[in-house]
Amino acid sequence: MPTLEQRMDDVRAVMDAVGSERAALFGISEGGPMSVLFAATYPARTTALVLYGSYARRSWALDHPFGWTEEQWGVALQTLERDWGGPWAIEMWAPSMAQDESYRSFQANYFRLAASPGAGVAIWRMNKDIDVRHVLPTLRIPTLILHRTGDRVTRIEQARYLAERIAGAKLVEIPGNDHAPWVGDAETVLTEVEEFLTGARRDAEADRVLATVLFTDIVRSTERAAEVGDRRWRDLLEAYYSLARRQLTRFRGRELDTAGDGLFAAFDGPARAVRCAAAIRDGMRALNLDVRGGVHTGECELIGEKMGGIAVHIGARVAALAGPGEVLVTSTVKDLVAGSGICFEDRGTPPLKGVPGDWHLYRVTSI
Fold it and tell me: Which of 46, 87, 149, 182 lies 20 to 30 Å from 52, alpha-carbon distance?
């Protein structure tokens, strides 16, 4: 099994190989002591040190009472060898994901690909004896220490011990009990690291997701309302929205907004959005109403329960160009539904008001 010195030499060899003269080290858990040793040995090659969920000494001692006891080590090593093929000790590593079957499968696979049970036990036995406490006072590198307050693998006292003994170290205690940094509030971990290394943190960006947006409305709605009268028009609108919502449920769409006779919805699949638009259109023909629709797939901003961004504007502009009973889609949608059996007719590249660039549109001819 590689010693701390050998692990440190591996880091230096990789830096040499890629021509990296200086680097910031991010030491997670057992990677912390090795990073401490590297930073103290090669301060000219270390710009900064970040320690997450880490420690200076792994085991309990009279002057270090927050390490693991011999009894804890015995249980851990016994279960490690016995349960290595499964999500070993997930309640300790990532308690917030302990009931998530996909994550349990991921962790089990992670351990299986990392090492054999015997190698895993050997590494842990070596980690049991790690102790770099005497190195801490020699560090003269900007250091950030991140630790979740309820970490079940490495107690928060370990982080406080490091912070007290590394000159100028900054300690950030993060709520939570997951040991794995990519589980739980990973964004806080990343933001703290970014600010520490760059001196600034970015403004919070809206979450973005690929989605298919659908816009429908009733053609010549003002004229029809005048023809049938207010009461009958209200009944027709109720029938329209009732039908539209049934189809949204059928095709797994999500209603985002309604205004007058307009409907705005989002889907996680373009074919379902096209079929939903056609179903709404066909259903309203029985009431002698023409419905038109526009469909586009693109990256949308998630703003609370709403969606925004240029993709939404494109979808609205496409719908506005549709004729009575037409469902228009962009070339993006057409390409994505290839093989679905949906047929199209080329409608050219009419300009989309306020939207830059050329957008090729197609009319849905059959589903």
Answer: 87
